[in-house]
Every structure is written in C-alpha cells, then in structure tokens.
Amino acid sequence: MPIDAVNLEVLKASLSGIVQEMQNSLFRTGFSTIVRESQDASCALMNAKGDVVAQHVVLPLHIGAFPACTAAVIDVFGDSIAQGDAFIINHPYHGGSPHAPDIAVITPVFVGGELFGFCGSIAHKSDIGGPVPGSCSGQAREIFNEGLHLPAVRYQSAYRTNGDIERLIGANSRTPELVLGDIRGQLGAGRLGEKRLGELLAKFGKRDILACFDRLLEMSEGKLKAAIAEWDDGRFEAERFVDDDGVDLEQPVRIRVVIEKRGDKLHFDFSGSADETKGPANIRPPLVQAACAYALISLVDPNMYVSSGLIRGFTMTAREGSVLNPRFPAPVNTYNPTIHALVDAIFDAMSHVVPSKVRADGSGSRSIILGGRNTYTGKGYVQYEIIAGGAGARAGKDGASGITVNQSNAKIAPVEIIESEFPTRLTRFELIVDSGGAGEFRGGLGIRREYLNLADARFSIRSMKHLIPPNGCAGGGNGRRGDLWINPDSRAAKRLPTRYADYPLRAGDIFRLDTPGGGGHGDPLARDAERVLADVREGLVSRETAERDYGVVLEPAARSWVIDRTATQARRAQLRREKAQR
C-alpha cells in the first residue's frame, strides 16, 4: 500500500534529521582532529538490503561506499546478524572503503525480531599501520603496504564489545587512543541512529517507513531519469590526467570517459582509461559509481535527496585491470587525485549535454601527514591535514578561493588547533596572488601554508596538479599549479613530487605547500575592467597580470590604483589583434 504524500515528506525530513544528528554526535565526540575539526566522515541509514535511504551529504563518495560495505556484512554474516551487533570493515576489495584509514562501523536495526535496516558511518583514521605514519604511502606498490585491512568482522555482540578486535586494531596503530576513540564515537552515532529510528517507528509504524524507503529510492531514480530525458542524445567524451602514480613519476595517468545518452538512459564508459598503476592511484568501482552520481547531482539539482536510487539512474563500465577497476592487491590509498580527474573529465564531457553548467577545473585535493613522538608525552602522534585550493570558475560566477572542491568537503583544521596539538608552527597562511586562471570569470585562488617544524618528524604528502594545471574553459586560462618545498629560499631547498612518503623532517625545517588555483571561464578581455581593478585592490590579481592577461592598465592614485581608460582600450585592442593572428 503506497504512503500518502504528507507522511512521505514528514518521514523524508525525519530520516535526514536522524542522519544529521548522528553526524553531529560523531563530530562532537571525535578524538582526532581529522574527525573533530576536518570532519572527514559521513553517516547514513540503509534498508535491510544495504541500499542507502538517507545520507546527509558530507563526503559524496560514500554514497557508493556504504552499500558496498553493508553488502559485505550481509554476505559474511547473513542470518546470524542479530540485535545488539556492530560490524567493522575497511577493506577496499572485500567491501567498499576508499582506503584502509576509512573504517566503516555498521549496526543493524531490528523490529519485532526482523532485520529492518542498518545505521552506518565511515570516518578516516589517523593511523591504521603500514610503513609510514598516517598509513598513506604515496609509494605503496600493493595493498599490503597500506596498513591493517579488516574484512567484515563482528565488533559487538549483544551490545558487548569484542576486546580482541580492539586490541588488534590498537596494536596496529601509531595512535591507538585516537583510532579506538573515533571508532567508539562511530559506534555511539550508530546506536543514536537506532534509537531515533525506534522513536520514528513507534510514531509511524513499520509499514509506512518501509513504504517510505521504497518511495525515496524510486523518487531519486525518477528525478534523475526525468532530467536525463530532457538532454540531447549523443556521444560525448573527455579526458584528464593525474600527474603520476607516486612510483612512475614521469608517467601521467590517463582518465577517459565516453558518455552515451539515449532517451532517459545514460551510460558512462571508462574503458579508455589507463591500466592499473604500480603506485596507489587506483580506485575501486564503488567510488567510480559514486563519482558519476555526484556529478549528476551537481548537474541536475544540488539539493536533491540522496539515496541509492541515484545509482540506479545510470549505468557504467570500468574495464577490469584498469586504474578504475584494479585487481587485488593493487594499491589504492592515495586515490583522491584520480577521483578528482575522473570528476573533471565527467563534467567536461557533460558540458556538451548541459552547456549552461560548464565549469573550469578546480584545484583537486591534497593532504599532508607528519608523524613522530610527542615531545611532552612521548606518545606517537600523527598530524593529518586536508588542504584546500581554488575552485574553477563557471558562467556568471568567479571560482571560490581557498575551498575544497568536487567531492571533497572536509575542512581545513584551524591554526590554533594545529599549533596546540602538534609540534609545529604556521608561519604563513594566505591566498596566492595570480593563482586563479584568468577569464571573464576568474578562477579561485590557491593558498600558501608554510610551517616551521619543531621536532623531528616523518613527512608524507598526497597531492595533485603540481605538473598538470587545472584547465580553464570557454576561453579561460588555466589555474596556477601547486608546489611543495622543504626549506624554501635556502641553499638546501628541496622540491618534493606530487606524492611522497616518509621524508625525514628535522627540527627547525620549514616546509611550504602551495595549492593550485582554479581555472578561468570565458575570455579574460571580456571581464569588466572595474572587476579587474577590484581584484588588484584586494590583492587577488597583480597589476602586471591585470595588464598582461586582462588588458587593464592601471595607474597609481592616492593609496590605490585607478584605471587608465585610454591605455586600457588600446591594450585590449592590441591583445585581440594578437589573439586573432594566432
């Protein structure tokens, strides 16, 4: 029997509210800065089959990870799943975790002795073992170099924790208190979700809520297919490249997509992408599927309800043995650059289908990881930070500066937290002038974050777009590339590659990370001269770049700049002639 429209809307809002409350609980109880400050975690509700029926979007990739992790739990434990159980899984091949540090905690929900659904969370852990602090070696050659991998295992039975599991995890981490504290926080978030679902069941009943689950899946799929049906039919393709895989440093990794659109059917074919890589640039199909869903959400309606119904709205092919469907035990831990290249390629191809939504490439994502011994406690520490950059511009709007882009929604940890918890000092944290690609709409600016290291530490980075810049679009310029230097501006200066593991930092060393800017959109000569002047006055664009790229000539005035109208008109005319002659 179908659910009435009023109850459907009330239940939909209630389910989203439960997930939001779960996430708030997880973030408030987080032990690590990764969960507590950067909020690198998501929560969701699943039905008894493992389909996501409610996810408050923090990290969009988890729309693919949750069903795969829950399916592994169901496959292993099946009819033995009981009330009071809790399960842990972080295995990318036996489940759907992006990499080993992303541990999922799944708790079943029962009604009248019958399995009703699951509550779940996925959160990044500070360290889960492996050869380097943070468990994200950019030079890993197989998954066994990436830390402790847990297939689906029972963490609690009858609400009693399996201490053996905790001891096993703790013994394989450089920061056991943080890792176990975050896992227990995830468990608490799951139990909170169970309680709130129980209250909802008492109010509306099992039949209505199960009907709501089914209807929400149908609505997500239906809305997506309705939008697809309105787009032009055709075959569209695009590609992007990842700088390297961390092992073959001179070999960019190709990500290619061909999109076939017929009626309300949309198929993504990634068969032309590179073979699986030696280094950890590979990603598993659940993440590829989630990246497609994320791009479609962005193109159709950023506010649409997120459920596994979205995954049913399209099909995809990822060739086995490729970088997007690697064979076990190919490494996967620094997967994010590949996901960003994948998303940028999808948006590029889809720009021919939905031209009003065309956008330039953003900065991608990166994280820095330092590990060592705390000078006060003597215990191991892992300083893990997610660093933002510039967003790509789009028609009618400049790209945002210093912001995470695409599927990466984690936050930059505050300076005060980093300096109070780790032996480091931030000496610079600023936007990089001229880093946004020139265009009628300018790309967002990247940021410079410079640190003084106060104790010996082991340093790793996983980044992107240090060799291949973010593309501009519709005639816009590329964004500035990223860079990483140890002891810059000194004779001992050393530049590190895009991915690097276990560089030995000494007390007194300085390291500086410059993140890429976003690409520009449209002809820079079409940008309003007053907007260029405002950019220069705000320190976003230099006077030289204003003249060179935008054709806007400025002259000094009292404490500022003003536009030289005659010189600007002549300069822009000159640049247009030069462009026409190319």
Query: What is the straight-line distance between the termini?
Result: 67 Å
Please, how many helices? 12
> Strand share of the residues?
15-25%
Mean pLDDT comes to: 94
pLDDT < 50 runs, ≥5 residues? none
State the total count of DSSP E strands.
Answer: 22
Largest β-sheet summary:
7 strands, antiparallel
Q: How many domain units?
A: 3
- Structural class by SSE content: alpha+beta
Q: What would you report as the Rg, rounded to the nearest angstrom?
A: 25 Å
**Strand neighbour order, sheet with most strands:** 2-1-5-4-3-6-7
Helical amount among residues, as a percent range?
A: 25-40%
Shape: globular
Pick out its properties.
582 residues; alpha+beta; five-stranded antiparallel β-sheet; 31% helix; globular
Structure characterization notes:
The strands form five sheets. This protein has a seven-stranded antiparallel β-sheet, with helices on both faces. A five-stranded antiparallel β-sheet has the order 14-15-20-17-18, with helices on one face. The protein is α+β, with helices and mostly antiparallel strands and 582 residues long. It folds into three domains: 5-221, no CATH class; 358-522, no CATH class; 526-581, no CATH class. The radius of gyration is 25 Å and the shape is globular. The chain has helices spanning 5-28, 33-36, 62-77, 163-171, 176-204, 206-230, 285-300, 336-350, 415-421, 529-537, 543-550, 565-581; strands spanning 41-47, 52-55, 86-89, 102-111, 114-124, 153-157, 160-161, 234-242, 253-262, 265-269, 315-317, 366-373, 380-387, 424-431, 447-453, 457-462, 483-486, 494-495, 499-505, 510-514, 554-557, 560-563. The protein contains twelve helices and 22 strands. The longest helix is centred in the first third of the chain and has 29 residues, at 176-204. Strand 12 and strand 13 form a beta hairpin.
